[in-house]
Amino acid sequence: MDTNLDEVDRKILRELPTDGRASFRDISARIGVSTPTVSARVQAMTDMGLIKGYTTMLDADMLGQTSVIVSLDARPTDIEKVVSKVKEEEIVRQVFVLSESSVMAIVAFYSQTKYRQFLDSLSQVPEIGRISTSLVLRVPKDSQRAALTDEAGLMIKCYYCGHLIHDEGVKLKIDGKYHYMCCDVCAKLYKEKYDKLKKSAQ
To answer: What is the pTM of this model?
Structure first.
């Protein structure tokens, strides 16, 4: 199983952020491949999790929202508990786990009341140590974090065991979607688990 991006993949990925409204036919004409090829490549990259979705970027300032960066300190063993608490909050837009056992959240809100309630709720979480906040005054640059460069490769985790898939791996097509495993053993166990869950849901 090839887990690297080829030139066609890269061309498609460069076109998608340029015009989110472009059809697969438009993209195929621009990069010189067939429409079915574009559709199949996009589906495969979506199934593996590289393409996480399609969205319209809104200007928070024009919507009258206030943005704040909230930094939280916690013990290394408590980081996941803190993340689980923070990421469920309505006003939280992004969450980053940082070095030195800290978590950073970017929040955007209209209501100061909701913001104060959010901070109050954090103060009640015993796993959180120090809380610091910084008001975002302006955003000179706001681009998506993922950047496609010539060095970019793929780091796909096995859907069953979670280990990184290297040069050799297994790709299964189940119910119209591709699923990726690191070896035949994980593929067999994953298929058995998938079939069992599907049967119990019927």
So the answer is: 0.68
